[in-house]
Amino acid sequence: MWEQITTYFQNDLDTFILAVRAHIMISMYALMLAVVLAVPMGMMCVRYKSSKKFVITLFGILRVIPSLAILILFIPILGTGLRPALVALILLGIPPILMNTVAGLEAVPEFMIETAVSCGMTSKQVWRKVLFPLALPLILAGIKTAAVEVIASATLAAKIGAGGLGEIIFTGLGLNRPDLLVIGGVSVAILSSTVSLLFEITDKKILKYKN
């Protein structure tokens, strides 16, 4: 198998690089859009308590649905390719970010909010200078979880023509090529581990006050 893997990289390195690039791009876009949607929704859930149960329950249900099923459900609406894959990955990435945003904001002690208000801070200043900074560690943890899940699930995007490392894995399955399965699977695992490590480094750099 090692000879087959070596031969693949000798003959198809450009194809591999394109697959890695496509995998990173679709994962990055999905994660960024998930953050843009999930963090404000989490803030809304904390500010308007009546919406919390509905929003969290809705996205909790969506998280249970397998990504492949969501991909297939959106094909009649969005067709094949990048768009349905992005939608499925965004829906997968939102729940951990949303739930951690809510948990982080609700964990801020009430006395700190009262102190900020008594010091003359406006509602916007309380959110910007007190609530959000103190909730940031949990929010980052949610983003990290979402990133790992999105990278792993982006493999399925190849099923509907969105590209990525999944193409190598599914080609290996179709041709009964264990070397391609190893190349694709290990590459996804390395990407996930690298992103997880980057978040750990970011956490230590940005959130020094935790120590």
Question: What is this structure, in a nutshell?
Answer:
The protein has helices at residues 2-11, 13-47, 49-64, 67-78, 82-106, 110-118, 123-153, 166-175, 178-206.
Estimate the global geometry from the Cα principal axes: elongated
Major beta sheet summary = none
Share of residues in strands: under 5%
Helix fraction, binned, reads over 70%
Number of strands: 0
* CATH class descriptor name: Mainly Alpha
Radius of gyration over alpha carbons? 20 Å
Uncertain segments of ≥5 residues (pLDDT<50)?
none
Distance between the termini: 47 Å
CATH topology: MetI-like fold
Q: Into how many domains do the coordinates divide?
A: 1
General description of the model:
With 211 residues, this protein is mostly helical. It has a single domain (12-210), classed as MetI-like fold (Orthogonal Bundle). It contains 9 helices and no strands. The protein has helices spanning 2-11, 13-47, 49-64, 67-78, 82-106, 110-118, 123-153, 166-175, 178-206. Helix 2 runs antiparallel to helix 3, helix 4 (67-78) packs across helix 5 and helix 5 crosses helix 7 (123-153). The relative contact order is 0.15. The mean pLDDT is 86.
